[in-house]
Amino acid sequence: MTDATIANQIRVLRATHDLTQEDLARRCNITRQTIIALEAGKYSPSLELAFRIANAFGVGVQDVFRWVGPTP
Q1: CATH architecture entry for 9-57
Q2: What is the pLDDT of residue 69?
Q3: pTM for this prediction
Q4: pLDDT by residue (tens digit) across 17-51?
Q5: Mind giving me the DSSP string for 2-71?
Q6: Residues 6 or more apart in contact with residue 55 via CB below 8 angstroms
Q7: Taking the domains of the chain in order of start, what are their residue ranges?
Q8: How far apart are CA 33 and CA 39, in angstroms?
Q9: How confident is the model at residue 7 (pLDDT cuts 50, 70, 90)?
């Protein structure tokens, strides 16, 4: 069984909102490296950060993140 992960649409949303990684990082008060790790699926955000990112795009958390459960 593999670990569960949280998939995200950050890269897609950034493109549709014409934001760079740095722009989004500034809006969320985090580093660009955190955005890079999130987009690569190497980091799962805290609940607070998930809300900050969703708010930066003007959408709900469920529009940015989705649970990908473990596979057998």
Answers
A1: Orthogonal Bundle (1.10)
A2: 76
A3: 0.88
A4: 999 999 999 999 999 999 999 999 999 999 999 99
A5: PPPEEEE-HHHHHHHTT--HHHHHHHHTS-HHHHHHHHTTS-PPPHHHHHHHHHHHTS-HHHHEEEEPPP
A6: none
A7: 9-57
A8: 10
A9: very high
Q: Which two tokens stand for residue 55?
A: 């708010």
Residue-level pLDDT at 5: 82
Which position has the token pair 């795009």? 57
- The dihedral over CA atoms of 37, 38, 41, 43, expressed in degrees to the nearest 10, equals 70
The dihedral region occupied by 41, where left means phi > 0, alpha psi between -120 and 50, and beta the remainder, is: left
* Side chain identity at residue 28, one-letter code: C
Which candidate, 59, 40, 41, places its Cα nearest to that of 5? 41
